[in-house]
Amino acid sequence: MGGCCCCFPSKPRRENPMHPAAEPLIQGKPNHAPPHHQPPPVINSTDEGKGKDAIVRLKTGFERFKTNIFDKNPKLFEPLKKDQSPKYMVFACADSRVCPTLTLGLKPGEAFTVRNVASMIPAYQKTRHCSIGSAIEFAVVVLKVEYIVVIGHSRCAGIRELLSLKDKGPNAYHFIEDWVKIGMNAKNKVQRENRLLPFDDQCTVLEKEAVNVSLRNLDSYPFVKDRMSKGTLHLIGARYDFVHGSFETWKL
Ligand SMILES: [Zn+2]
User: Fold this and answer.
1) Which residues contribute to the annotated binding site for Zn(2+)?
2) What does the pLDDT read at residue 88?
3) Domains in the chain, ordered, with CATH?
4) What is the pTM of this model?
5) I want to staple 91 with a disulfide (CB 3.0 to 4.6 A). Which of 70, 110, 150, 202 is the partner?
């Protein structure tokens, strides 16, 4: 693994040809923050209490988005009606606390995103995990993204499940154990090299090592390998820590 490069968020970003001006996504009040650091509006508990209904809550959120973002950013949204040209493909965990659009300030059209348990990418298999394979193929072959970013995170339940797996015994779930076994090589490595660490600390190490397994698995997809060999596609590993409020990146 190469050295840590914690500069991913602050690297010069590709100018969005559809929205070149550095306008804040949410308009109305003067705001001097860079657009990609501007968070979407937060629905606070008072707003949520008005609805007391799941559908009303969703509609309230959409109306706020429509009024504050969609209607006020035609330069961004008009071109997106015709096409998308995302620079990134992002893999993130389905965990409700780690939405990459929010944590990385990504704008609509900027990242083709897949979220699943523990942010895992299986090795290429024609007859299994077709949803992952088709998403990667579409992003790489059709959209021609420049970067695939795989993001792990702190206190990931999927990673804890992986580290808790026993060699024998029945599964407790229909799908979860088999899914997280994608990271089995990472689990074995972490347990072999970190025997003296407490379980929680081993989980922290595994949160990164499982990302590395997914990055290596990407190499088994022929269209990924092809574009990487041409230097037109790059892989980035990352970990978002919502306990300490940090984000690190690295390359293999
Ligand atoms: Zn997770």
Assistant:
1) 93, 95, 153, 156
2) 98
3) 19-83 (no CATH), 84-250 (3.40.1050.10)
4) 0.81
5) 150
